[in-house]
Amino acid sequence: MRSSLSTTVGIRARLRTAAWTAVALILGASAQSRAESPSASTGAAILEKLRAFQEMGSVLHVAAHPDDENTQLITYLARGRRVRTAYLSITRGDGGQNVLGGEFGPQLGLIRTHELLAARRLDGGRQFFTRAIDFGFSKDPEETLKIWDEQAVLSDVVRVIRTFRPDVIVTRFSPQASRTHGHHTASAILAVEAFKLSGDRTAFPDQLKDLEPWQPKRILMNRGLGGGRGGGEGAVQLDVGGTDVLLGESFSTIASRSRAMHKSQGFGNFGSGGRGAGSRPRTESFQLLAGEPAKKDIFDGIDVQWTRVRGGAEIGKLVSEVIAKFKPADPGASVPDLLILRRKLTVLADEPLVREKRRDFDQILQACLGLVVESTLSTAEVSPGDSLTIEHSVVRKGKVPVTWRGVRYPTLNKELKRTDPLTLDQVVKVTDQQTLPNDISVSQPYWLREVPGVGVYRVAEPSLIGQPLGPPPLLAEHEFEVQGQTFVVPAAPTARVIENGKQIERSLEVVPPVFLGFPFEVARFAPGQKRSVQVTVSSSRPGVTGELTLSAPADWKVAPRSQKFQIDTGSQARYTFEVTPPAHAASASIVAQATVGGRTYDNGRVDIRYDHIGHLLLQPTARLTAASFDLNIRGRNVGYVEGAGDSVAECLAQMGYTVKPLSATDLTKEGLRGLDAVVIGVRAFNVRKDLGKHMPALFAFAEAGGNLIVQYNRPEGLKSDRFAPYELGLSGQRVTDEQSPVTFLAPDHPALNTPNKITRADFDGWVQERGIYFPNEWDQHFRPILAFKDPNEPPLEGGILIAAHGRGNVIYTSLAWFRELPAGVPGAYRLFANLVSLGKG
Q: Which of 488, 473, 499 shows the shortest CA–CA distance to 377?
């Protein structure tokens, strides 16, 4: 949604953000406890929380992407040493590939954000990000920092340091340039520079409205896995092996399960085997990058006890006494001592670490009191101005008397007052009705609310920068009183819904009254020629009436100007507009907009469902990429064999082809009859075990006169290497510069001339990269027709390899069609059409 809001609304939004920031850590910790540990109210779990409360040290681990982090180290520090441990991933991994499905870009970034959160729930760490966009593989850290906007991302790293306030920073990579991903090196460069600036009041002074400078003691590079290889002179050696006392599992086993959450990157079976099993010693090495040296331990010279806080020595002593007397079978027996300790905590200086420890302590108190609090919604999706039903449920399982004083909704500036003394084991339920403000924003990940820059996301509210997710639209703060002291239990209400036969828990999503969508994300036009564009309108509430329009550049004509609609809950209707592009080649972004009740919405709907991360909802701008250019095709019928997931089949339909999805049972002589070409989707040989045995039928199809086009595969993890009837070897080589020069190796080849004459201009406007995992060796039957090169590197000729096979052709192509075609790149369409058209009249 792009409607402007008043100053009053902006103030309210900041208040909501502040309310969320105050409880974000405690909500995250609660979710972690529910997901991984034995019940948070068990005596063993409470005792572990008390021991963690006693520890005051903290470590920030820094790397570039999801899956870069050392989960063994995080598990050891968070679960073994019980210190505050966080992972800062510079990017959200939105530029990578996805082995699970067809989500790329922002959708993939959201998936990987939640995969990291799932990983942290297992290994016990916390998660941070910067605004940097993963723009794909980079061979040069200087290029990386330029694209990212070095100062913007550096300020984000400084912000995270000032927010989390670590004693030690540990990078995953070296700041010295090497033959690794440029993002990797850049992450370490940024970490070192941020280490030097985070304690400087003159650095990024705008942050000091909400934060204080913070100077960590040292920054170290984690040099090696297992055995400390590459430690170097002066390196600190640390045994990170051991067993988690609560779970009874080795840190290695937990770390492997954590890493297995990166399923979109193919790590789904990481924790299923023997790797990492056992509690045997495991040494990690740490090399000093800046700050004070350490000799025996990464925390050398750092006070990691309560004595670091003025007046905290008494707190540390009292916590030790509580731990010594704690009875796991009777946690409530510790409540009197905890209440004494809580009063002592309230008089300490109000510094960030103390505030966080107070929130942690209230969690411990809640568990010892046996308080179970739930806030449940009747539905997971509500539109602005609509009412919602919330059922609050409270039960006391401990012996100490407690009074429930009520519930506050800071995001709505409302409250529900109660005076309920809680009877042992008696559930108190209260049903409440609340109404969402008419001007509340539609739910959308905070980093996706604005149109992004080239290398960084734009975020309007600085306090959100660094956080994994933004504030929920509704927050409930339950207030309780025990022996004269009041404390708050925050909860983000959730709904229990049935999806695919399973009951799942979903957070509240604010949705527009209608969702808008186009049949496909890109539409090809012929210059000056009118074509119909359909818009789908789906209602999320009953009896919605409004007006539908298309917003397009002035030289793109749209008729009619608007259309009225009326639609009921769960219904869907299609409306057709006639769109005429200018007479010359052009591109445009066309946005669908619906005005309902005086407010304009432009939201589409994308549902992402994977078992390991649950149901994710994106509501991006309903946008059509319109590209007007000349295109000729030959042949009419194309079969498409699905791989890991892409939208190339839909793009073929935009070219004018009739596309037939091919299942495994279709890969026979009869099933392929009538097709001019067969295209195999990206990474099909990485994800499909059944494809290899069907390749002879596809080779025979080519031999009989068809064109077989195989898109890129990764060289590792292949289920079959029978890509072609002739030898072909893959490599990890890629051309990352999307503007890299092209050399025509076979300028007279039909693929460059028929039915579209390909020139160097057809390689303008490509996005992210030229291609990935180029073949580096091939049989003489294959003929390379193009070469690309990155700066200071030899050219790669394996982007398109064509082998005549009988009366047809077998083509292997590692160019990034799965990115270029959905982006509406004209030259990519023209060249791909030529590959499909080879030999066709």
A: 473
- Note whether 730 and 685 are within 8 A (CB): no
| C-alpha gyration radius of the chain | 29
Which distant-in-sequence residues (6+ apart) come within 8 Å of 165 by Cβ? 58, 214, 352, 353
| Separation of alpha carbons 265 and 129, rounded Å | 18
122 three-class SS: helix
Domains and CATH numbers, the chain: 57-304+446-466 (3.40.50.10320), 370-436+473-508 (2.60.40.10), 514-627 (2.60.40.10), 631-837 (3.40.50.880)
How many CB atoms within 10 Å of residue 568?
12
Q: How far is residue 377's CA from residue 374's CA, in Å, rounded to a whole number?
A: 10
Measured between alpha carbons, how far is 261 from 35 in angstroms, rounded to an integer?
13
DSSP bridge pairs for 251: none
Location of structure tokens 């990206």: 682
CB-CB contact of 187 with 64 (8 Å): yes
Question: Which tokens is 289 given?
Answer: 């990058």
How many Å apart are CA 496 and CA 505, to the nearest integer?
Answer: 5
| 588 and 542 Cβ atoms separated by less than 8 Å | no
Cα(258)–Cα(274) distance, integer angstroms: 15
For helices 150-164 and 141-148, give the axis angle rounded to 10 degrees: 80
> Distance (Å, rounded) from C-alpha 27 to C-alpha 490?
7
pLDDT tens digits for range 302-316:
999 999 999 999 999
Here the tokens at position 583 are 């007479």
Token pair 């309903």 is at which residue?
622
Lowest average pLDDT, out of 36-40, 137-141, 668-672, goes to: 36-40
Q: Which two tokens stand for residue 206?
A: 């705008």
What pLDDT, on the 0 to 100 scale, is given for residue 19? 44
Q: Collect all residues with Cβ–Cβ distance below 8 Å to 516 and sequence separation of at least 6.
A: 535, 536, 537, 538, 548, 592, 593, 594, 601, 602, 603, 604, 622
Burial annotation 538-552 (CB, 10 A radius, 16+ → b, else e): bbbbeebebebbbeb
Count Cβ atoms within 10 A of the Cβ of residue 484 and give its class: 0-12 exposed, 13-18 middle, 19 or more buried: exposed
**Each residue's pLDDT tens digit, 6-42:** 333 343 344 344 444 444 444 444 434 334 455 666 9
Residue recorded with tokens 């019940």: 39
Q: What are phi and psi of 414, to 5 degrees?
A: -130, 165
As a whole number of angstroms, the distance between CA 445 and CA 436 comes to 19
Residue whose structure tokens are 């401990």 = 398
Contact 555, 532 (CB under 8 A): no
Q: How far apart are CA 374 and CA 695, in angstroms?
A: 55
The Cβ of residue 830 has, within 10 Å, a number of other Cβ atoms equal to 21
Q: Which of 602, 666, 597 is nearest to 637 (CA)?
A: 666
Measured CA to CA, the distance from residue 174 to residue 180 in angstroms comes to: 10
Task: Provide the 10 A C-beta neighbour count for residue 673.
Answer: 10
Residue 788's DSSP bridge partners are 742, 796
106-124 burial, b if ≥16 CB within 10 A, otherwise e? Answer: bbbbbbbbbbbbbbbbbbb
Asked whether the beta carbons of 98 and 111 are under 8 A apart, the reply is yes
Q: Is 655 strand, coil or helix?
A: helix
pLDDT band at 570 (very low <50, low <70, confident <90, very high): confident
Q: Tokens for 443, please give them.
A: 């739910």
- 323 exposed, middle or buried (CB, 10 Å; 0-12, 13-18, 19+)? middle
Q: How far is CA 422 from the centre of its chain?
A: 41
Local structure of residue 605 (DSSP, 8 states): -
At position 359, the amino acid (one-letter code) is: R
Strands (E), 439-493: 476-482, 485-491
Q: What is the mean pLDDT of the chain?
A: 92
In whole angstroms, what is the distance from residue 291 CA to residue 72 CA?
24
What pTM was estimated for this model as a whole?
0.89
